[in-house]
């Protein structure tokens, strides 16, 4: 069970019906190249994301002398703004703590993840920060690193085992889905037909968010789901799947999406169909494009995942374990609450960080 940590911005009056855990949405050539402290990745435009996601991501940066050795940072796909923030934060924190870093991305491919992890193990890195490619699929390779004496901290997504990784730090996805679904249901006036864009099925976050949405929406019998498609956290897939859903269900009035990239793809399709004023869209992650869509009235709400806070915490706990043999945390699995973003507070968000 995850221990629950409060995010910097509290939302009063929200009861959390579910306490599920576990995020949102490149592989590399196997070599690391020298770079500055920012990780390889695309910008927040869909064009840049598409271009970057077609290739692997790998880079290295040097900390202040690298006294602590090397931390390998293995993430999903930095062409997605969410994972880019994860990588950039991890590199900056590890560098601040005196480590050299390498970064690479597996694009949710367990085989590529295994190759990247084995490269890090063979390099005898001091520690590994991993955003895992599948809750079940990642267990064996995390165990292999641990058996080799290399501590692994997980961030953003969990694995279905404890006692292997030194820490598993994720967003409270059930709580985030609950507050997002409540805001969206209210915007729908608790009536209408809607469709859902589902994330990558191998990621526990996809099901947790979907279940969280359902737990809220099922309380309103006049809200009826008429279609669902898997869009794998991707903006382009979200657009294509939304086009198909609009063709099959032209009169829908709502869309719920498991992450912002799929939601933004849906908005592109909805705009092309000249229905942006008729369809209410819910996102999840809090990337800046989504926040801007909320400001523009194109998205009802998004839910900011505290990825910067969570990544900093994961690197700090990994560093603590490397130095002392303990993370200092009371539990391995830890969840941090998400924050609802609407037009009322969208101006406070800047690249996943919420100002007070």
From TrEMBL:
UniProt KW Electron transport keyword: no
Signal peptide: 1-22
PROSITE patterns registered for this protein in UniProt: PROKAR_LIPOPROTEIN
Low complexity biased stretches: 27-62
Family matches, as InterPro entries: Peripla_BP_I (IPR028082), SBP_2_dom (IPR025997)
An example molecular function term from Gene Ontology annotations: carbohydrate binding
Highest taxon, organism lineage: Bacteria
Localization (cell): Cell envelope
UniProt domain Periplasmic binding protein: residue ranges: 71-320
Keywords attached to this entry: Signal
SUPFAM superfamilies: Periplasmic binding protein-like I (SSF53822)
Annotated spans, Disordered: 27-68
Cellular component GO terms held in the UniProt record: cell envelope
Family: Belongs to the bacterial solute-binding protein 2 family.
Record protein name field: D-ribose ABC transporter substrate-binding protein
Organism: Nakamurella leprariae
């Amino acid at each position: 069970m995850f221990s629950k940590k409060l995010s910097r911005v509290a939302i009063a009056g929200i009861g959390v019906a579910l306490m599920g855990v576990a995020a949102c949405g490149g592989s590399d050539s196997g070599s690391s190249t020298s770079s500055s402290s920012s990780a390889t990745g695309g910008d927040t435009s869909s064009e840049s994301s598409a271009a970057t996601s077609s290739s692997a991501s790998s880079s290295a940066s040097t900390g202040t002398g690298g006294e602590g050795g090397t931390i390998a940072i293995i993430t999903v796909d930095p062409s997605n703004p969410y994972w880019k923030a994860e990588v950039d934060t991890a590199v900056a924190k590890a560098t601040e703590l005196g480590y050299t870093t390498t970064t690479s991305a597996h694009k949710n491919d367990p085989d590529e993840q295994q190759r990247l992890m084995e490269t890090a193990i063979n390099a005898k890195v001091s520690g590994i920060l991993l955003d895992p490619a599948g809750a079940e699929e990642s267990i064996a390779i995390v165990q292999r690193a641990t058996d080799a004496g290399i501590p692994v901290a997980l961030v953003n997504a969990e694995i279905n085992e404890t006692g292997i990784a030194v820490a598993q730090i994720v967003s409270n996805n059930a709580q985030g889905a609950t507050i997002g679904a409540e805001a969206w249901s209210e915007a729908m006036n608790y009536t209408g037909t809607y469709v859902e864009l589902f994330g990558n099925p191998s990621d526990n976050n996809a099901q947790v968010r979907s279940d969280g949405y359902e737990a809220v929406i099922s309380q309103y019998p006049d809200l009826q789901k008429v279609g669902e498609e898997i869009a794998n956290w991707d903006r382009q897939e979200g657009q294509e799947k939304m086009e198909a859903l609009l063709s099959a269900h032209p009169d829908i009035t709502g869309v719920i999406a498991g992450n912002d990239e799929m939601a933004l793809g849906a908005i592109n399709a909805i705009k092309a169909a000249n229905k942006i004023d008729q369809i209410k869209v819910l996102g999840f992650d809090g990337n800046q494009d989504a926040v801007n869509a909320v400001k523009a009235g194109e998205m009802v709400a998004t839910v900011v995942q505290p990825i910067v806070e969570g990544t900093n915490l994961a690197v700090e706990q990994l560093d603590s374990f490397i130095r002392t043999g303990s993370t200092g945390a009371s539990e391995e699995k830890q969840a941090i609450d998400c924050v609802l973003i609407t037009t009322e507070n969208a101006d406070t968000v800047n690249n996943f960080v919420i100002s007070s």
